[in-house]
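Title: Prediction job returns without error message
Component: structure pipeline
Severity: low
Priority: P3
Assignee: unassigned

Description:
Job completed but the reporter wants confirmation the result is attached to the right record. Sequence as submitted:
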Amino acid sequence: MDRLSAADVMQLITDVGPAPMQIGACLLLDAGPGFDAGAVRRCLTTRIPAVPRLRQRLVRTPPGCGRAVWLDDPAFDVRHHVYERRCPAPGDEDALLALAADVVTTRLPLSRPPWRAVLVTGLTGHAAALILVLHHVLADGIGGLAVLADLTDGDPAGPGRPAGWGGPELPGAHRGGFPAPAPSRRALAADAWAGRLRGLRGLPGAMSTVRRSAAELGIRSPARAARCSLNQPTGPHRRIAVVTTGLGEVKALAHAHGGTVNDVILAVVTGAAGRLLASRGEALPTLVVSVPVSARTSASAGHLGNEAGVMPVALPTGGDLASRLDRTAAITRARKAPVPGASAVLLGAAFRLLATLGMFRWFINHQRRVHTFITNVRGPSERLRLGGATIGAVVPVTVTAGNVTVSFGVLSYAGTLTVTVVADPGRLTDLEVLTGALRQELADAGQGANPVSPGTHPKQVEGEMPI
């Protein structure tokens, strides 16, 4: 039985706001003539067998039969998931990013496999973009990268696997074990009770699990987020901005200060947020950031879902980047848990209780635990190809719910570090101030990794998407 995990259930519970809990990526492609939605459908059709979850839908079980299960959708057709749109302003980065924001914030129906791919044409030259979006219940960030890896060129299906299904070009759609028969109610109930018994056998170690969960959440010394303009109830729309820099420079700076790439990202973002608040006349010496903590370092297409907790950390916003990085690295070292992702246990239980009481949406619209979210995922070190087109850049897009007006998604790909700023345009009207501060912080990071000799000029952050 491919059931929802407790962390997966938490993703469904949190999907109650006007903006859906979905994750996405905008792939910038060097595509030749004839690369259209039909070509993308044919390409994905041959690769989806390697990612069974992409042709499965979520089905609720009868009472007493446990959590919902993933089952093959007998009506699956790739044409229901792949579309084509033309960029309204060729060569305009903002127009492409606005389109990506629109695609990622358009709710996916759970009555079908919850994913969508939109090919964007009309960019400069032979360039195209493919916007992929998944509901968060299907996969977390690391799982999303596993999906991308199996959709790119190569032979992910392996020998003996069917070529694909769905659509008129696949007359053998119902051969090769697809769709798999749905389990009977008796089988569902038996599996559910077996899971409950396994849970009972794990009760002796429950208290240690709770202690680890509380430690990762910082419950013993909770950091309450001071009131500021970053916390306001958000609406259904999002605006995206992107800043890029070289991954090598960030690694060098992290190594020089005994930290990690993630520490540099945290220090850069908190510094930029501090500058934004200062421009608004607000002084906030400490920013409370929610950082996802994965319980795994990799994922496969056969093992998706969510396996992550969160670690709220109070980080400094003032001072120069070097001193801020030193303090940030010390804070994160002290907070790192021996069992990453353990916080999902308590967090999931609390969210389920709030949902049962009908209070969850009120809670996330009024929470004072965090100011922002920062996710960082390590992507491929070499460029990938999709349908013969080289993927030149990957822009991550994450959508958060509640009263957090701006969040940050970070992804490394082929030597480039991309920071995506996702903001509610109705609440954060000065996005340019934030992105300008972020560019300056990243430029400082590059200068810190490569000290400037007298009479030379510091290397500047790239800051632009190659569209």
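Comment from assignee: result matches the submitted record. The chain is about 35% helix and 20% strand.
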